[in-house]
Design goal:
The chain has 191 residues and is mainly alpha-helical. The protein folds into two domains: 85 residues; 69 residues, Membrane-bound Lytic Murein Transglycosylase D, Chain A (Roll). Helix content is 62%, strand content 5%. The chain is built from four helices and two strands. A two-stranded antiparallel sheet has the order 1-2. Helix 1 runs antiparallel to helix 2 and helix 2 packs across helix 3. The protein starts with 12 loop residues before the first helix and ends with a strand. About 8% of the residues have low confidence.
Length: 191
Amino acid sequence: MSHHAGHLPHPTALQILLLLVLALVSPLTAQYADPAAREDEAIERQKILRAADQLELLVQQNQKLQEDMGKLQLQIQALQEDKAALHKRLDDMEKTAAKDKQALLKEVAGLVASSKGSAAVSPRPEAPPKTEGAKQEGYEYEVKTGDSLWAISKAYQDAGVKVSVDDIRQANNMDRSQNLRAGQKLFIPKK
């Protein structure tokens, strides 16, 4: 790294510590010429060098922690972006489900309205009458992709027809293991 004329690089904490130690130790060295003083001085230098090594280690550890923290912050940011994308997808799915529900309700309401206006009511398909010669009143519904018995019964209930999932199952001779198929015709009993 180049420095402009007149600008010195910023000294590190380690460099400042070593300069202070040398400034303090140098005058003492001249005063003590005896072997005990030199030994004490050597011990003090060892302590200072160990402290300098520990300081350098702490500086390195701090740098590593700063790098790790930066990586974690990037990961947090990526996770927050993923969370926002998932929330958007969930919102989109909820909007689609609401549109599908409205379309189903509209279709059922149309079926109910058209059957109330006509004198003829669809007879119960493929089911023998429960009482001699009596036919059950109700509606015919064609299953669409994604329909469930619960959604169909709920749509009819919302349109004023009191019918349960079990009512639909029973009216169509369905057991719990049977799945709906798109295009399948269901008889919705009117109570």
